[in-house]
Amino acid sequence: MGQSKAMHPKALLDVCSELVRLTLKFDHPTDAIVSRFCREHRGLGPRERATLSGTVYTVLRKKLLFDHYAPSGSGPKERRLAILGFYGPGDFLRSALSDQEKNWLDQCEKINVADLMERHRHNLPEWLVQPLKDQLGDEFWPLAESLNLGAGLDLRVNDFKAKRSDVQKELAQAGIKAVPTPYSPWGLRIAGKPSLNKMDAFTRGEFEVQDEGSQLLAMLLDAKRGEMVVDFCAGAGGKTLAIGAAMRSTGRLYAFDTSAGRLDSFKPRMARSGLSNVHPAAIAHERDDRVKRLSGKIDRVLVDAPCSGLGTLRRNPDLKWRQNLQLVQDMTVTQAAILQSAARLLKPGGRLVYATCSMLVQENEAIAQAFSEANKEFTAMDVGDILTGLKVNGAAALCSGGENGLRYLRLWPHRHQTDGFFAAVWQKN
User: Fold this and answer.
1) Digit-coded pLDDT (tens) for 305-354
2) What percentage of the chain exceeds 70 in pLDDT?
3) Fewer C-beta neighbours within 10 Å, C or N terminus of the chain?
4) Residue ranges of the domains in the chain?
5) Which stretch of DSSP H or E encloses residue 166?
6) Torsions phi, psi of 236, nearest 5?
7) How far apart are CA 38 and CA 144, in angstroms?
8) In angstroms, how far is the first alpha carbon of the chain from the final one?
9) Partner residues linked to 341 by β-bridges
10) If DSSP codes are grouped into helix, strand and coil, which group holds residue 389?
């Protein structure tokens, strides 16, 4: 395959169809399938890679609608889906189609989506629809719409090294317009998907890509200089770095995770950040000896629990087809166990934050309530009051639950332009 300008529309559509076929097996996360495919097809230029990725993600977002249209066409199903979801100019696509395919596409484009059944409009699996309607009522449709639009790009400025306004200026000089995020004091929001990892400010460790919702979770911990802090499920370490910067690189911040691989990939980010207070450690499970040794010694613990990830459907639309109710139920058992183990680390007066990027009550409020009932030595705190104390604008609008609607952090993509996040906070008596 030649470079971008040389690739014929027909060849590109064939490649798109093949990638759609591989993706719809759902045996691996889509982002991993796409990046592997692009590595194996080295001749693809940046434009083609963008078309491939855009097509696949459109098919995943609108799968039920496209499944409805597809039977009226001819040829392999993955080709029909790739035509419907094709991410590129219409005339370019049409030059790759047979007359029969063009006629079929014209017919599809004439259909008024508003007249179709609900499932073809929301493109969500049935098991997910009712729980979301129960929570949101009339707001279900704005949410469904926002999940199919894709996500913007947020950055977190590493305020241990740089000022937000200075990073914003440097981005502007590179032709990238960034506006301050409405809630996080560290965030910048960017339109489009510019390449950022070649920028000097990035290599100097002055910013990281991180959703504003994740930044707010790190803020809720409110870690102070010189404290002993644990990020219990650190993953790739984005929140760890935000917490470390808030501690001004003092004290000790343990980054625990059961995946040594994830922690290894965190090391270059840690090096860029300039933080010296972070101590990554792989643990076998939540009851690991490393955890036991710290029991009763820690000031603050963040549990960003493994979850269904359904709050990230704008970025990971494959999750709605790869998850099911049984997997979510199994997940809640793990979440409760991890929260219970993490709580043992705290000393009296310490703070515990439980968070997920899920939108489902059983992974969120239900876990928090069960923990409060079983652990009377912990007092639930109102997240709204914490955020107001941290001078977050409009903190009340980010919360729900409890007597005054301020108990939990509850972020929604259509309301707050973040991923769907939940957080509950307790203080140990």
Assistant:
1) 999 999 999 999 999 999 999 999 999 999 999 999 999 999 999 999 99
2) 99
3) C
4) 4-123, 153-209, 212-428
5) helix 164-173
6) -80, 0
7) 30
8) 65
9) none
10) helix
The enclosing H or E element of 178 equals strand 178-180
User: Under a CB-based contact definition with an 8 Å cutoff, are residues 100 and 72 in contact?
Assistant: no
Beta-carbon contacts of residue 265 (< 8 Å; ≥ 6 apart)? 236
Q: How far apart are CA 327 and CA 323, in angstroms?
A: 6
Class for the domain spanning 153-209: alpha beta
pLDDT digits (tens, 9 = 90+) for 3-26: 445 589 999 999 999 999 999 999
Closest CA to 63 of 49, 51, 77, 47: 77
Residue 307's identity, in one-letter code, is: C
Q: What type of residue sits at position 358? A: S
Contacts 24+ apart (CB under 8 A), 407-412: 407/380, 407/382, 407/383, 408/364, 408/365, 408/368, 408/383, 409/216, 409/217, 409/220, 409/355, 409/383, 410/364, 411/213, 411/216, 411/311, 412/136, 412/139, 412/143, 412/359
Spatial distance between the Cα atoms of 157 and 167, rounded to a whole number of angstroms: 7
Q: For residue 389, which amino acid is it?
A: G
CA distances from 246 to 65, 106, 159, 220, 223 (A): 45, 55, 8, 11, 6
Residue matched to tokens 């000790």: 252
CB 331 within 8 A of CB 338: no
Element (H, E) at 414: helix 413-416
pLDDT in tens, 102-146: 999 999 999 999 999 999 999 999 999 999 999 999 999 999 999
β 178-180/278-282 pair status: unpaired
Length of the chain: 429
- Rounded to 5, what percent of the chain is helix, strand, coil? 50, 15, 35
Q: Tell me which DSSP letter residue 426 carries.
A: E
Give the β-pairing of 298-304 and 228-231: parallel
Average pLDDT over residues 254-261: 94
CATH code given to domain 212-428:
3.40.50.150
